[in-house]
Amino acid sequence: MKRSRLSQILAGVLVNAIYEMINYPIVLLASVISPLSLLAVVTFVSKGTLLGTAIEGGLVMSFFSSGIAMASDLSHLKNDFKLQDMVVSSPTSSRLYMGGMALAEIVYSIPSIAILTVLVVIYVHLSIAQAAVMIVVLLLMFAMSVALGFMLSTILNDVVQSFAFTRLLSLLFTTLPPVYYPITYIPQTFRYAAYLSPTTYAAGLIQATTGYLTISSGLLAFYWAVLLGVTAVILLIAVKKTRWKDI
């Protein structure tokens, strides 16, 4: 049984990651350029003062974008290749299917994550405790975006529409909020809008842990509560409301 589940997960990685990486390397290049381009812009504009937060923001963007990309990838496999119809009629559960595809998205993003991780080691100099906090926050962000992406993929019926939603959500969650820079750079009047995005709290936690943002212990606890709460709610909605077998 365990071997069967492992083979199903590896099949998801092969279909959704390895195949594209080998046959369409240009899409792999695009996934690397996206977080690094914003990193370069923020670093140049700030004359290097925001290099650390920009690197951390690149990681937040990579993990969130990896998860939300499931919306377009799974929509493509569902509508163009009818893969989900075959999976539904098989013993594979929706959770196992989502797990395999989520792992595939991480594999697909390994080049950008590896580059950003090297930059973190060189320029941020994390302690073990700081690295642990960063990993937990990034995994929470990935879990949230995976659930959101999977839910959207089962609802949207057009690949073009799913690509539009993916780009829109990436813009709203990783480009507009203070992910690549501290929220203190935003005028007080506009900070309330920034707090509407869960990535604001994820980036804030990492920045506070690594010393780029100074906040009180009470506000730090609030950040954790919001991130954990939003992740739990989105996962619950994905489990309860996702259309899996009646599409």
Summed up:
By secondary structure, the chain is mainly α.
Give the biggest sheet. none
- The portion of residues forming beta strands comes to under 5%
Cα distance spanning the termini:
28 Å
Tally of alpha and pi helices: 12
Overall pLDDT: 81
| Tally of discrete structural domains | 1
Rg, rounded, reads 18 Å
Helix content: over 70%
Following the backbone from N to C, one meets helices and strands in this order, namely HHHHHHHHHHHH
Q: Strand pairing plus helix content: what structural class?
A: mainly alpha
Inertia-based shape: globular
User: What's the total count of β strands?
Assistant: 0
Q: Indicate the low-confidence ranges by residue numbers.
A: none
Characteristics of this structure?
247 residues; mainly alpha; 12 helices; 79% helix; globular
Please, could you describe this protein's structure?
The two termini are 28 Å apart. This protein has helices spanning 2-23, 25-45, 51-68, 70-80, 83-88, 94-108, 110-124, 128-155, 159-175, 191-194, 198-209, 217-241. The chain has one domain. With 247 residues, the protein is mainly alpha-helical. Helix content is 79%, strand content 0%. The model has no long low-confidence stretch (mean pLDDT 81).
